[in-house]
Every structure is written in C-alpha cells, then in structure tokens.
Design goal:
With 49 residues, the protein is α+β, with helices and mostly antiparallel strands. The chain is built from two helices and two strands; from the N terminus they run αββα. The protein has one domain. It has a two-stranded antiparallel sheet. A hairpin with a 2-residue loop joins β1 and β2.
C-alpha cells in the first residue's frame, strides 16, 4: 500500500477502518488493501476549522 497516500488522507481527517490482508494480487505477489473513510459530519467540521 501507499504510505504517502495514507498520511495524506489522515491529514484531512480520514481514519483507517480496516485492512484486507493479501486481497490484491499484482507484480507476482499479494498486497494488503487499506480501507479508509470519513463521515460527512467529520468532513464538514474539518472545513469549519
């Protein structure tokens, strides 16, 4: 997974809500998939700060 992208999402308020272990196969190996989300009220309150 892309650690730089995860940090960027976290900076704007997204939270990691799950990990699908070895869920994606590419380049000859399996990779984890990170699930991130943000609720509408969390997003809106972030914009007001």
């Amino acid at each position: 997974f892309n650690k730089r992208a995860i940090r960027t999402y976290e900076k704007v308020g997204f939270k990691m809500v799950g990990k699908l272990r070895q869920a994606h196969f590419s380049d000859g190996k399996y990779h984890d998939v990170i699930l991130m989300d943000i609720l509408q009220d969390e997003w809106l309150s972030r914009e007001l700060k």
